[in-house]
Write a structure and sequence with these properties.
about 120 residues, alpha+beta, two-stranded antiparallel sheet, about 30% strand, 8 strands, five-stranded mixed sheet, single chain
């Protein structure tokens, strides 16, 4: 989640969920939700092809529209998909990276999603 706050840590990350398989192993991807569509777009622009734990991640709009998140604080347009995450990454590393520039916005929630 921290990774998704971005370079200066000013993107408002509401959720960072690393997807896990039934055995508890990371699938190497995450869904990150921001407080606004503007922050989600900035994350895509600023954080795509950045390095997290030695791997280049890719960030794009979340196209799945998980119904469990519908009606949340920002809605589906506020979510991004993050791929190629290290299997060893914890939600905290993702959260830290995804904050962006500035370090002035708080993260409200982070989880690890299990199948």
């Amino acid at each position: 989640k921290d990774h998704m706050r971005g370079v200066g840590a000013d993107l408002d990350v509401l959720h960072a969920d690393i997807m896990m398989d039934a055995s508890g192993r990371s699938k190497g991807c995450a869904i990150v939700e921001y407080s606004s569509a503007k922050h989600a777009q900035r994350a895509i622009n600023e954080l795509n092809n950045t390095e997290l734990m030695g791997r280049l991640i890719f960030v794009r709009e979340d196209r799945e529209g998980d119904s469990a998140w519908q009606g949340g604080v920002g809605g589906a347009s506020c979510k991004v998909y993050v791929g190629n995450i290290s299997w060893d990454a914890a939600w905290q590393e993702v959260k830290d990276h995804m904050r962006g520039v500035g370090a002035d916005l708080d993260v409200l929630h982070a989880d690890i999603m299990m199948d």
